Protein 1
Amino acid sequence: MTLFIYNILISLTGLLLRIVALFDKKIKLFVNGRKTVFAVLRQQIAPEDKVIWFHTASLGEFEQGLPVMEKVKTEFPDHKILVTFFSPSGYEVKKHSGAADIITYLPLDTRRNAKKFLDLVHPELAVFVKYEFWPNYLHLLKKGSIQTILISAIFRRDQMFFKSYGGFMRRSLQTFARFFVQDERSGELLHNIGIARVTVSGDTRLDRVTEILHRDNTLDFMEPFHNGNLCFVAGSTWPEDEEILVDFINNTTGEVKFVLAPHNIKPAHNQALKKSIRKKSVLYSERQGKDLREYEVLIVDTIGILTKIYSYADMAYVGGGMGTTGLHNILEPAVFGIPVIIGKNYGKFKEANELVALQGVLPVSGKDQFHKTLLQLTNNKEFRKETGQINAAYIKKNRGAVIQILEFIRTLL
């Protein structure tokens, strides 16, 4: 594929998305959200402003970039921090975040959009998080001699950069002043195509989750609900996960409290989930006036408190891996030094592969294996403790990416 063909495809994609937006709510957010980007930038960025631009694809990449954003904002207070999102699922959740001065969508990667965007933003530094390689933006960044780095990057052999037909994408990589990659394999892939500006720094999320340990994680409703019992927390669950969780809850006895935090917090979903559970259950939104000590299952139908809830857990399950939606963040519970159970589809997630190999994260393929694994953790205190310690040690050993990235940024600004 050539850059010429790419530009035609991007333009056609823009037209197609406007049509699809008439019928799809998420695509409608994607399209409509971009209509005001240039007006917002024109209003909030003056020609004399010094700007540092972070680009993240969605929510997960934002979380990876956040510890770097926070350090940069503190160390360079005279600069404005701009964060752009590609996906509505990231922008809609974080559009009011205090981590940045300006948060917008990134316009589609047409030549015209890229030029207009960079003319308005005129960044001194561009920081791309993990991936998102947009050739027109990258070409103009290089043309304008704007320092650009990629952080928490991870590369796979099957990506276009490493194919015979991926020349125009390989050229896009030449934009970056430095690649901060998560693992040695990514570094080797870049070296094999002639890119030597690589630092194997690890995943910035490890620094991010380490900070969780040092904040106040107290939740007033969790104290009475926990009430000294073993506590099992299942976070970011999807229907495929909830099927095996509900089966276990309904068919086991014992003094274990269960917290379910579904990915889908719509009332209809959570009411149906509550109805499917035969043990005494309560929704977070209905907890007021109730003696939570009397309940065995708490369903969290809100967002923003899951990481604190994990601090009360003796064991955790992280959703997304039982189906095909993608495994959610296993590091958030792992940092508390507890065992983590996941579904069978975790192969694309580096930290999951490594922690499964170390046996701190335990994959299950279905109801029977989940039942066996959770009973083992529940009944064997020593096994539970040793498994959790593996996770805590892994995070402690592999943190430190943010320090390396910040040291490099200091040389650029």
Note: The first strand starts at residue 50 and ends at 56.
Protein 2
Amino acid sequence: MATKHEQILDYIETLSIGSKISVRGIAKDLNVSEGTAYRAIKEAENIGLVSTIERVGTIRIEKKKKENIEQLTFAEIINIVDGQVLGGREGLYKTLNKFVIGAMKLEAMMRYTEADSLLIVGNRIKAQEYALKAGAAVLITGGFDTDDYVKQIANEKQLPIISTSYDTFTVATMINRAIYDQLIKKEIINVDDIYTPLDRTHYLSTEDHVDKWYELNNETNHSRYPVVDHDQKVVGMVTSKDVIGKELDMSITKVMTKNPMLVQTNTSLANAAHTMVWEGIELLPVVDAQSRFQGVITRQDVIKGLQQLQRQPQVGETIDDLITNPLELQEEEKDIQTYYVDVTPQMTNHLGTLSYGVFTSLITEASSRALKQYKKADLVFENISIYFMKPVQLGSLLNIKPNPIEIGRKFTKIDVEVFSDSVLVGKALLMAQFIDR
């Protein structure tokens, strides 16, 4: 019989996507204690069945498949950017295919905005309205609110409209970092990705006899099978060595090897492979977090998994890569290197001007490149003092001039000036430490 914990997880799986869940409600519906309900809901969150959002509550979400792990739900976006839901709560369980930074004219913005996308925009009511009507959710940066009729559209369309206090660059960085982390997880193959599931697995029951082993052996030509009790728990393993010379009507529990080695579905491929090689095992039973039998993993499964690992795609560019990669060396004048870069939409804030965070990334990257001509060592920036930064609009060409004013054995100071159309638009002082390789 399933435990109360397992019953709650099974119950949560039957709830429709988008349903709101509470500890008190689960405890009342299933007649369990609130402590038991709380622990089961936390387990459901860990395995991706629900998502808990501050000021909203816990909602049932669709469990993501491995191949779609890099797609985030809007519920996860809220947690990433510490956001607040202004409308469209019923759509929090949905996933987004891409996000668009709204730092351009309205017509151009709508060309990039499509259904199941997320528009990151500031206090631009028309852009928010058009995005929702196009089937896209909206993330408002700068901590702004929106009009009531926009919230009404979000509720009708069941598309979340979210507000966050962060600027556009910071939000894009946060989301991109979350996708980056998800892609790293995607490259890690677990037993869950490669094992042979229950419906394609042959196994024995504690009520079977030795003759059942011979029956399965003739059918499959395999020689080892897990033994499972009435609660779907693995209690033993039977191989050809165990049944040789035994009576056909002898209970399988009398000949099985008790307490066999098991692996969980969330065990890594490397760990399972090591166990099989070290112990000389051809087959391992696979169980879930509640120790219920899920299937088996064989050496053939491991080999296929290693081949799949070699075909995994490489992790894509981060938002920092998109900003600093276009940075190019223009010229070197009086030992001062000058770097130039065009201001793209990804670099702007909700007002359409260069983001403060992007400015910091650009001057640190330019300074790091300039210092490599003096010393081949790793560099860690310990202090950045930005004296001023004027608004720089989209499409401007920036010239960044890092000038090392003091270079010691361990520490250095760099004075950085940033120009746009020969006008000084930013000035900063950076202090960094060299770390020898």
Note: The two ends are 59 Å apart (CA to CA).
